[in-house]
Amino acid sequence: MIKKLLHAIEQQTGLNMQHNHDFVSLSQQIFERLHESISDSTLKRLWGYVDPQNVKPRTNTLNILAVFLGCKDFDSFCKMGG
Q: 3-state DSSP: the chain helix, strand, coil percent, rounded to 5?
């Protein structure tokens, strides 16, 4: 379901999340819209841009991304089927 969340973010923002500036831009957009911070480094790990190991993101990070998409939280995003 995390992959669906990341794909939905890409679709909404029009970012392809393949370059450093994509992650910086998304981090800025999240802060401007929600006044919440997710570092570009955290976003890079989530997308596998760096440290392509199995990353277990924090619930708060997933919640912020789901809220960015207009959901109440990540659990709500999952219940909607992504």
A: 60, 0, 40
